[in-house]
Design brief:
It is a single chain. It contains 12 helices and 11 strands. It has helices at about 15-20, 60-65, 85-90, 105-120, 120-130, 155-165, 180-185, 190-200, 220, 240-250, 280-285, 300-320; strands at about 1-5, 25-30, 50, 70-75, 95, 145-150, 170-175, 200-205, 230, 255-260, 290-295. The strands form 2 sheets. It has a 6-stranded parallel beta sheet, with helices on both faces. A 5-stranded parallel beta sheet has the order 2-1-3-4-5, with helices on one face. α1 crosses α12 and α4 packs across α6. The radius of gyration is 21 Å and the shape is globular. About 40% of the residues are buried. The chain binds 2-OXO-4-methylpentanoic acid. 2-OXO-4-methylpentanoic acid (COI) binds near residues 77, 78 and 79. Keywords: NAD, Oxidoreductase.
């Protein structure tokens, strides 16, 4: 059996070597390049392809892969929003993702960022770096005094709720598909509007599917409390960033942490030191004391990377054997 993997990063290699040791009967080929119509032929002769990229899996790329005989595609990440599923269906693809690699990784990052915003660590760290060790005016707020609105109570949202409970915050939640236990605890509000009206801070854990596109926009922001704190570690397209910037400018939004950005492809996970950002908005956001920008690193822990590699390669083997792995995507 042969599996070919695209976009393998150096930090994934230890996990990949470990998987190879455990699966000596599988030949693994890989490249650092992403799957494109041009690189598809690298997978020729393989039973399955393993991929991770933020670039779209277009009809052209999928067709090129199918033309070299590969119609098993295992994603090493959770998000499937960049796959052309119509094309995948038409071409007879099997697709898997890794829906649960480490919800804690993402939930922890979001709550670390929320705590940092509340305790104003960015301006305080900047003062300390300049040897200004005075307290004022960089006074913080306490987590337990906040009503935190969690939008999306899947695996990640629920971990975030547990962390919030540890801090003693009041949690309110909204999900189109409520979780029974949380329902019994009475955590859900009836609508997003209710959540907007009550929350001091709002953190998002929903996928970037079309119906969630620009969920956070000038209308939803207008329904929020004055001085609301926003956290987005989920998908960039959940927010109309211009409306968020307007909210920051007017003070309606007091603080904002973003780990994702609608225009992040080609921007995040690149070294811009000594160079100008191609996008002035990101430079503006990074420069603000009350905004924390991280380049889509919420997921980025040793545990998560290990799971992403192991689970995706296991699924690729299952597809190659004609089986349906538990993490196959239904479409
Ligand atoms: C996903 O798993 O879809 C993520 O957003 C993390 C990705 C950057 C590997």
């Amino acid at each position: 059996m042969k599996i070919f993997a695209y976009g393998i990063r150096d930090d994934e290699k230890p996990a990949l070597e470990d998987w190879e040791k455990k699966n000596p009967d599988v030949t693994v080929g890989y490249t650092q390049e992403l799957l494109t119509p041009e690189t598809a032929q690298l997978a020729k002769g393989s039973d399955s392809a393993v991929v991770y990229q933020q670039l779209d899996y277009t009809k052209e790329s999928l067709t090129a892969l199918a033309e070299v005989g590969v119609t098993n595609l295992s994603l090493r990440n959770v998000g499937t929003d960049n796959i052309d599923f119509d094309a995948a269906k038409e071409l007879g693809f099997n697709v898997s993702n890794v829906p649960v690699y480490s919800p804690n990784a993402i939930a922890e990052h979001s709550m670390i960022q929320l705590s940092r915003l509340l305790r104003r660590t960015k301006p305080m760290d900047a003062k300390v770096a300049k040897h200004d060790l005075r307290w004022a005016p960089t006074i913080g707020r306490e987590m337990r005094m906040q009503t935190v609105g969690v939008i999306g109570t899947g695996n990640i949202g629920r971990k975030a709720i547990n962390i919030l409970k540890g801090f003693g915050a009041k949690v309110i939640a909204y999900d189109k598909f409520p979780n029974k236990e949380l329902q019994e605890e009475g955590l859900y509000v009836d609508s997003l509007d209710d959540l907007y009206a009550q929350a001091d801070a709002i953190s998002l854990y929903v996928p970037g599917v079309p119906e969630n596109h620009h969920l956070i926009n000038k209308d939803s922001i207008a329904k929020m409390k004055d001085g609301v704190v926003l956290v987005n570690v989920s998908r960039g397209n959940l927010m109309d960033i211009d409306d968020v910037i307007d909210g920051l400018n007017s003070g309606k939004i007091s603080d904002f942490a973003m780990d994702v950005y609608e225009e992040e492809v080609g921007l995040f996970n690149e070294d811009w030191s000594g160079k100008e950002f191609p996008d002035p908005k990101i430079a503006d956001l990074i420069a603000r004391d009350n905004v924390l920008v991280t380049p889509h690193i919420a997921f980025y822990t040793t545990k998560a990377v290990d799971e992403m590699v192991h689970q995706s390669f296991d699924a690729a083997v299952a597809f190659a054997k004609g089986e349906t792995p538990a993490i196959a995507v239904k479409f």
